[in-house]
Amino acid sequence: MAVLALTDSLMDMKVRLGKMVVASDKSGQPVTADDLGVTGALTVLMKDAIKPTLMQTLEGTPVFVHAGPFANIAHGNSSVLADKIALKLVGEEGFVVTEAGFGADIGMEKFFNIKCRASGLVPNVVVLVATVRALKMHGGGPSVTPGVPLKKEYTEENIQLVADGCCNLQKQIQIAQLFGVPVVVAVNVFKTDTRAEIDLVCELAKRAGAFDAVPCYHWSVGGRGSVDLAQAVREAASKRSRFQFLYDVQLPIVEKIRTIAQAVYGAKDIELSPTAQSKIDRYTEQGFGNLPICMAKTHLSLSHQPDKKGVPRDFILPISDVRASIGAGFIYPLVGTMSTMPGLPTRPCFYDIDLDTETEQVKGLF
Predict the structure, then answer these.
(1) Which residues contact 145 (CB under 8 A, 6 or more apart)?
(2) What's the distance, CA 363 to chain centroid?
(3) I need a labelling partner for 35 at 20 to 30 A (CA). Which of 6, 99, 146, 245 fits?
(4) Which positions ≥6 away from 352 have C-beta within 8 Å?
(5) How far apart are CA 8 and CA 81, in angstroms?
(6) Beta pairing, strands 30-32 & 21-24
(7) Distance (Å, rounded) from C-alpha 290 to C-alpha 81?
C-alpha cells in the first residue's frame, strides 16, 4: 500500500517493488523481491491498482480515491499519482485538496517529510480541521465510548473545557509552522456547538498564529457551508510558502527520530530498546540510514500514551522496535506498545455476512 501511494509511474513502482526487503541472508545482507525474481509478477499484480479511481462528491466535485495507508502505522496519505493528475486537471489557477490523516503530529508530519520528498510537490496551505467536541476532550472532558450517548459536557456549552483543550489546537498549529506553510483552521461545526464556543476556538487559533480560522457548516448544509473556508484558503495560498523539511535525511537514524519526538511531539528525549538499537545498527550497515522516518504512534495523543490528552510535556518517548519499508522508502520506528495491525474488532465481521441464495441479496455487510 505504501509503495502504491508513493510511486509516480509504472516504472517507478516496478523499481520500488523490486527493492522490497523480505529477509536478511546469513551474512546480514538484505534479500529483496528482485533477488527472488518476483518483481515482474508483482508488477503485473499491481498494474491496474496504480490507476486512481475517479469518483465524485454528492455535489459533483471530482474526487480521486487512491491508496489508504494508515497514518498511525504507515505514512497516512493518498497517492502521489492522484495528486499529480489532479493538479494537471485543475490547471494553474485551480486548487487540489489532498488529505493527510490523523493530525498534524503524524499524518501531516509524514505528508511533509515523506510524501513531499517523494513527489517533489510544495504545499501552499495547511487546512487544520478541529471540532469543539475534540477540543473539549483535550481539555479534560470525560471519555467517549462508541455506541454510547455523549455525556452532557459534549452536548452543552462548556467554555472552560473548550478553552483548556485549545492548547492541543495551538500545538498542532505550531507543528505546521515548523514547515513554513500558512495554516487555516477549519472549525467543523455541529448542531450542539454554541456561538461562544466556536468564536473562542477561532480567536485562540488566530492568536496561536493561524492565518485564519473559519467556522464551517458542511456537516449540515453541504458545500455552501464552507464557502468562507474556500475563500480563506484562496487568500492564504496567495501568500508565499516558505516550505522546509524538518530534518536532513543524511542525519543518523537516531537523530531523525529524536528530532521528530522533540520538535513535533514535545518529548524530552527518546529511549531505544536493545532491539530497536540493533535494528538501527543493521539498517545503517545495510545502507538504509539515509531514508526518512515514519513513526508508528498512537493518533489519540501527542505522546505514546493514548489517555494523555492536551499537550503532554517532559515525557520520554520509548522506541520498542524499528522496521524498514525499503520499497516505500522509509524506516518506521514502533513507539511504545504500538501494534502494526489496523484496528480490527475482536469479533470479525465475516461472522455476520451471508448470502440469501433465493434472492442473491447480501446480508450483514453494513
Answers:
(1) none
(2) 33
(3) 6
(4) 363, 364
(5) 5
(6) antiparallel
(7) 24
The string of pLDDT tens digits covering residues 165-214 is 999 999 999 999 999 999 999 999 999 999 999 999 999 999 999 999 99
CA distance 358 to 245: 59
C-alpha cell at 124: 501552499
Per-residue confidence (pLDDT) for residue 116, from 0 to 100: 96
Nearest of 344, 347, 249, 331 to residue 294 by alpha carbon: 331
Q: Distance (Å, rounded) from C-alpha 91 to C-alpha 76?
A: 26
Alpha-helical (H) ranges within 74-194 are 80-90, 109-110, 116-119, 132-138, 152-155, 159-177
Q: Is 285 exposed, middle or buried (0-12, 13-18, 19+ CB in 10 A)?
A: exposed
Report the side by side order of strands in the sheet with 330-335: 269-272, 316-325, 330-335
pTM for the structure as a whole: 0.90
The DSSP bridge pattern shows strands 361-363 and 354-356 to be: antiparallel
Amino acid identity, position 130: A
Q: For the residues of 279-319, what is the DSSP string, one character each?
A: HHHHHHHTT-TTS-B--B--SSSSSS-TT--S---S-EEEE
**Which cell numbers hold the place of 129?**
480541521
3-state secondary structure of 13: helix
Residues in Cβ contact with 212 at an 8 Å cutoff, skipping those fewer than 6 apart: 184, 185, 206, 232, 235, 236
pLDDT tens, residue by residue, 208-263: 999 999 999 999 999 999 999 999 999 999 988 899 999 999 999 999 999 999 99
Positions in the chain short of pLDDT 50: none
DSSP state of 247: S
C-alpha 355/C-alpha 313 separation (Å) is 53
Cα 299-300-302 angle, rounded to 5 deg:
80
How confident is the model at residue 342, as a pLDDT?
64
